[in-house]
Amino acid sequence: MISSINPTVKAGAILVPGVLLGLMFDIFTPLVYLIFIILVTFAFTDISLKRWLLIFSPFVLFIVSFSWTRMLYTSESFQGGAILFEFWYFQVTTEALMVSISLALRSLCFIALSLLFILTTDSTKLMLSLMQQLKLPPKITYGVLAGYRFLPTFKHELEILRQAHRIRGVGRAKGIKGRLQQFKRYSIPLLANAIRKAERVANAMESKGFTGDRNRTHYHEMKVRRRDWVFFGSMVGALFLTVFMSYYFGYLNIFGREIN
Amino acid sequence: MTNKWHLKEIVLLSILGVVFAVIYLLAYGVGQGLVGFLTPFGLGPLGYEFIFGIWFIVSIIAAYIIRKPGAAFTSELIAGTVQVLIGSPAGPMLIISAAIQGLGAEFAFAVTKWRDYRLRVLIAAGVFAAVFSFVWHFYQSGFFAYAIGLVAVMFIIRIISGALLAGLLGKWISDQLAKTGVLRGYALGKELQKKRERNDAA
To answer: Which residue ranges run through the membrane (chain B) (predicted)?
Structure first.
């Protein structure tokens, strides 16, 4: 199961294909890889289809918007081919349509990859793994974890602020100037409180003997096992295989240059 | 780098990263709204550009308050990582863009050798964050396939947004915070304290 893969290796397995996909400008490569990611998602995790679709589908809408623009404003390198349709002063050619579909599929790949990561990764384990595998300084990792734990209290504090304002007769703001005033009234005290907390937490950590020394022991030891590398290898390998297939069938297009 | 830092400065960086990660996530909602509004005109991608500066703001605030090398970069990186912890749909790729934006802001402070924190440097930090992030998106989001005119307009809007929403707003927020007195233990608060003492003496 992917939820038990080491978080740092998992992040690498998402990042490497994510960055490499930026090179591809054909339809075949991102489409095949997208299908691969979706297959992996449902074969090796227990994410339900409904939950996945609920998060995934709003992005489809959003990506359609981007592709629409891309199709209307395509750079010169992608303006060849027959004219499909014209309106206002726009001309949409087959190549423009192709590249906008390719970029839309690429964005869908990014989102599918991201969901594969965030829906299977525990945030504390990710930080612990970043500290133990990537040797991030413990001062920063524990600082972030402490800050992260404060998140729920911010909501509570906002509620208190609101009530405090109401009790003193400060109502809801009207107009743009009022809104700006209101923004200042809420944001500055919230941030000020957060800073006070940071100071207190730092004092508490130091008084309990936290020195930030890198030579420390860990209660939860995060290890990299062989199957973590198998996962990494198959995510990256699948992309190379897809690129090879796309080259073999003559679809491959890297930065507007067709390679075959 | 972390050896020269006080623990409280690092925890402050982290808390700022956490707070602004939430704001960054909310900004996505605003951006999506703008995109939806502009789509019928065929200008959807411009929606994000108008508010892009907000995603650089923690660099400017952290660097302005703490005034040490690495503050701009680290705070942005933390904000990016925390967004992943909270569960941003942009996922781990966000850490890369955060690092690149942070480097952009850090670059402006590095040029002044981390000594100058006047408004113009803060604005330059916002602008450089915009430039660096644009180069990355040029690759990652395939701006390469856009018409050159549209890319130019996006670039200019992003730079202006970086200057105003990150540079100017970042300074304003930090100054307001310094006035409340919570920053007494940090470089910005100390500077304000000195100024006050000088004014009292005069």
So the answer is: 12-30, 50-66, 121-139, 145-169
CB B15 within 8 A of CB A205: no
- Closest CB to B42: pick one of A55, A72, A78: A72
Q: What is the CATH number of the domain that holds B174?
A: 1.10.1760
Number of domains, chain B: 1
Residues 175-234 of A with CB under 8 A from B: 184, 187-192, 194-199, 201-203, 205-206, 210, 212
* pTM score over 0.80: yes
Q: Which of B2, B44, B96 sits opposite A212 (nearest CB)?
A: B2
| Residue B2 is assigned to a structural domain of this protein | no
B63 belongs to a structural domain: yes
CA of B25, closest CA in chain A: separation in Å? 13
Residue B20 lies in a domain: yes
Summarised one tens digit per residue, pLDDT across range B148-167 is: 888 899 999 999 999 999 99
pLDDT value of position B1: 55
Tell me the shortest Cα–Cα distance from A161 to chain B, in angstroms.
16
Residue B191 Cα, gap to closest chain A Cα (Å): 17
Which one-letter DSSP state was computed for residue A121?
-
pLDDT digits (tens, 9 = 90+) for B17-54: 888 988 888 888 788 778 777 777 767 778 888 889 99
Q: Considering chain A, what is the average pLDDT of its residues?
A: 85
Mutate to test the interface with B, among A65, A103, A203 (most CBs of B within 10 A): A65
- Could you tell me if the ipTM is greater than 0.90? no
User: How would you class A190 by CB atoms within 10 Å of its CB: exposed for 0-12, middle for 13-18, buried for 19 or more?
Assistant: middle
User: Could you tell me if residue B107 is inside a domain?
Assistant: yes
Q: How far apart are CA B9 and CA B14, in angstroms?
A: 9
Is residue A238 exposed (0-12), middle (13-18) or buried (19+ Cβ within 10 Å)?
middle
